[in-house]
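Input chain follows. Return structure tokens only.
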Amino acid sequence: MWMNCSVNRAAVIHPEETRMKDKYSVGDIAKIFQLSKQAIRYYDSLGLISPTEIDANNKYRYYSYNQFMDFALIKLLKDTGIKLDVIKEYLHQKNIRQLELILNEQISEYHRQIENTKKLIALTQSMYNKIHWTRDNMDPGSLKLVTFPARYF
């Protein structure tokens, strides 16, 4: 399913603990989901995902285990190239039909990029072939650069 993403499960439960933690620091979340601490803070600043608790003394942000699915989904969608503002909109609504539309649009965008890349490859290959043919079939001393006067259409 779509939640099959890379998560460092060993970091979820520390060896000295026998149960899940009540709260997870930014550093814990970074390790578990292989995100940078800066990314997690940035997601908070965008309103993408907010900590469940902020320590009044040291201002540390803490997240709950219940937010793990959202972190996993953010990472997965971002890894597929979906923009953070689109992810944020989805997370606030969590409508599966909307997610299908988002994913379908991303697939369509990748197909457009593939078609554009194919055209660029064909153009580049054509230029290469012409240069290669010219080099192999023409006397280098017979080639001249000719400038034509400007013409207006």
